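### Sample
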Amino acid sequence: MSLVGVFTVPGAQFPLTQVLGAVPNARVEIDRVAGDSHESDESDESSPAEAVFVFWAEADSPDALDDFETYLRHEARTLDLTCLDSVDNQRLYRLRWRVGDDDLVAPLVELPGEFLSGVGTADACRLVVRFPEEAAYEEFVEWCERHNVPIEEARRYTSESIQDLEAEGRADFLSALFEVGVLDENATLEDLATALGVPAESLPAGLDALYQEVAAELSK
């Protein structure tokens, strides 16, 4: 049975967030992490693997985004950084990254699993990954332990456990929907109704306030 793992790691442990310390109030929202199609030369076992990120960066000003871009371009493992789009104080980037043996990106692209989403600041990065089975989840956690990558929090959800949360308490259920990527902090109450498969008007009274409270907490 597949399951979804939600991991929170220190910002210094992830490539896109380790450079944010020099850019106050900046954050990244990661849409995609995958092994590069031009990975390593199979004839040269020492060739480093490569990964591709597609992500949004947000900061207080265009100048702050320029600083973020400059710092990231000067990272030793950055192979290529391309700005794909820009909206106000947000930019969409595509990054090609050389993956090191002790790089947290390595298990994301080399171990069984599908990267779903990630949100990070200089302080912490939250990653959501779907695993095909329990053993794959444990392999990811063990990789982090072997390479001294501290996981500040780890949660896992199956379809059954999310249904259990729904029965036990709405706040935990809403948190699960956010964490596994069904909803994000910008989602509306109508989006929640769609995710639950019910008309918005049939949602219980008072759920709107609870929903907004959970959304605000998880967006911190």
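Residues 134-146 form the longest helix (13 residues). This sample (Bacterio-opsin activator domain-containing protein) is used throughout the tutorial notebook.
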